[in-house]
Amino acid sequence: MSEDGAVGIRCSGVSRQYNDGNRIITVLHDFTERFRPGETVAVTGPSGSGKSTLLGLLAALDYADHGTIHVGATELGSLSSVEQTELRAGRISYLGPDHNLLPILSVYENISLALSLKRLSEPEIDRRIQESLRSLELSELAHRRPTELSSGQRARAALARALASDNPVLIADEPTAHLDARDATRVAGLCATFASDGRHLVILATHDPAVASRADRVIRLRPQAPGAGPDDP
Amino acid sequence: MSVREARRLTRRLIARQPGQAGLIGLVCLIAVGTGVVTHHVALAERDRVEADAIRRYGYISVTVDDAGAPGSPVAHLPGRGFSPVPDELSSTVRVAAEQLGLRVHGRFEGAVYDAQERSSRPFIAVGPDDPVRLAADGNRLDGRRHTLAVRPPGDPGGEYSVEWIEIPSAMIAGSTPDGSLVIESSWMDTVLRVGPAAPDEASSAVNVLIAERPRIREDRAGAPQKRDLSPFVVAFELAERPAMREAAVRVVAWPQMIGYGRYAAATGADLLRPILLLIAAVATAGATSVAVRTRSRDISLLRAMGFGPGFIRRVFVCECGIASVAASTLVLVGLLAASSAGAPVELDGPIRRTLLLGAAVPPVVALLVLRTQGRAAPRPDLIEW
Asked: What is the pLDDT of residues B48-65, one digit of tens each?
């Protein structure tokens, strides 16, 4: 990790398999890549190509069967569940397709909850929340709950939470999945802007070519052939 | 940080998504309520059967040490069976009394002519020292002092009162246990009228069996205002008016003497109570488990954000705990309200245990469920139940 808190991610020979009861399914096979701070990377590919699996691994939500993943200098495979949790709290913001907002909390409270992991003072938390809401034009919706927001507004609220958390890595799995073209473009732009300060790394999975086109680079995944595994030639 | 946030999140969960806490609270309320009602039904049933049995078979009064428990007579009767056949019961009491070194007094039933009221009453006479003896001529009781009890018929389940009647002497016509008709002129210690405060003229006897230890007389020496109290009187006084119990004397009804556990089991109510409580506890545990599992998405979101299992446990165990404590408190408030309204409400050990159990089961179950779920894969799309 650099002095300004920026971290990159390095994957080397990463594989992930699932057991569906009758057979082993390889979803990700021998994936090697380097993600640098300040870049926005779009991961694309058809359904089943392993986009969500890859993002889950990068976000320390899952363990790889083979290979290594380094977030900064930390090798994820060596982390216990508790250490993984601490890593997520301190370095990684993860957004799922539903934007991972707790439905019982307002936008403000969702962001506040995430910031409570940062051990900040109440005034500092409030300042960060107001700033992030302002920058995403959500100030007037601060006290609405996610169910009272449109999909685009929910996506922006989730981004506001990531922005306020200021974690060096933002991993977003299909953040524009349920958005119309206008909102999708806007969210993709916000993600790119987030990384443009050089301190943040944004990795997002998407099916949308328009969203992918806003990224600095695109990684295209292909579905693994049935039965393919790490020992295959 | 975590504690404050957990508390805040718990409040939001309960306030904005009250379904889960409401479900737990409702099930808990029903379970605890069932436990409390069942306990009272069991108590009422026990009291009814016991009161009925006591009316029919009387008391055993026992002198114990001031300290009480050591050498408690109940402990001396292990394994003695119970059979709800009157003759056997009578015999059991007698055997129990003998095993305890108690003196069993004879009893006989008959009618007493009250010279003051100029009417005859059925009675129970209890000799203070020896069983009833016939006089030498064979048709008179041996003249001596007796304690009599009379009570009016009807309303056997009603509230009993005890009234002292001063009758220095009376002619007693009665029958001995073998059926012989006897007449006696006796000096009366006391006449007890047991029954409603305003008895009618026609009275019937209370069937009483009295036993005592010799010491009881010495104990009574310290209570001169209860002039010449017989064991019978002591028994009734103490049993019917618990507040008047003296430290050295304990009155034990025969069902307790022969092992209350078996007796209670025989009434069925005490057997039913733990079964119902178990069912209630299982229902509460099941509802809690389901309620916590329906939170899997919230839990997964929190895990993905970086909250650890400890935080998650704190939030959801608190949610369950608040719901269950609220339910138990509601039942307690209901009991207190019923009690202040004059209802015969018990707040004794079983009730306290039921309330505590009701409050404790949901958070404990939530804790057990969250031991696995709190560590589950944090991605919502990986959560499967």
From this structure: 665 555 444 444 434 334
From A32-46, A171-185, B198-212, B296-310, the region with the lowest mean pLDDT: B198-212
Would an 8 Å CB–CB cutoff place B2 in contact with chain A? yes
> B196-230: per-residue pLDDT in tens?
333 333 332 222 223 322 223 333 333 333 333 33
Q: Which of A85-99, A106-120, B339-353 shows the lowest per-residue confidence on average (mean pLDDT)? A: B339-353
Of B213, B236, B212, B215, nearest to B226 (Cα)? B236
CB-CB under 8 Å, B306 with A86: yes
Question: What's the pLDDT tens digit per position in A19-28?
Answer: 877 788 888 8
Instruction: Read off the pLDDT of residues B144-155 as tens digits, 9 standing for 90 and up.
Output: 444 444 444 443
Helix (H, G, I), strand (E, B) or coil at A2: coil
- Cα separation, B276 vs B292, in Å, equals 24
What residues does each domain of chain A span?
A: 1-89+203-233
- What gap in Å lies between CA B229 and CA B217, rounded to an integer? 9
CA-based nearest residue in chain B for residue A81? B375
- 3-class DSSP state of B228: coil
> In terms of CATH, what superfamily is A1-89+203-233?
P-loop containing nucleotide triphosphate hydrolases (3.40.50.300)
Of A187 and B246, more confident: A187
Of B295, B327, B252, B315, the closest CA to residue B34 belongs to B327
Contact across the interface for B1 and A116, Cβ inside 8 Å:
yes
Q: How far is CA B153 from CA A35, A129, A173, B150, B241, in A?
A: 98, 83, 86, 10, 21
What is the distance between the alpha carbons of residues A126 and B196, in angstroms, rounded to a whole number?
Answer: 75
Question: Collapsing DSSP states into helix, strand and coil, what is residue B183?
Answer: strand
Contact yes or no for A175/A99 (Cβ under 8 A): yes
φ/ψ (deg, to 5) at B45: -65, -45
| Alpha-carbon span B24 to A181, nearest angstrom | 44
CA–CA distance, A213 with A66 (Å, rounded to integer): 31
Task: Inspect the interface and report whether the beta carbons of B305 and A100 lie closer than 8 Å.
Answer: yes
Chain A: closest CA distance from residue B310 (Å): 10
Cβ contact, residue pair B382, A62, below 8 Å: yes
Radius of gyration for chain A, computed over Cα atoms and rounded to the nearest angstrom: 18
Residue B224, CA atoms < 13 Å, CB-side half-sphere: 0
Question: Two tokens at B322?
Answer: 């608040």
pTM (predicted TM-score): 0.62
Q: What are the structure tokens assigned to B105, written together?
A: 């007094």
Q: How far apart are CA B184 and CA B172, in angstroms?
A: 5
Chain A residue closest in CA terms to B4? A116
Q: How far is B41 from chain A (nearest CA, A)?
A: 43
Tell whether the torsion through CA atoms of A202, A206, A209 and A211 is positive or negative.
negative
Q: Are B279 and B201 in contact (CB under 8 A)?
A: no
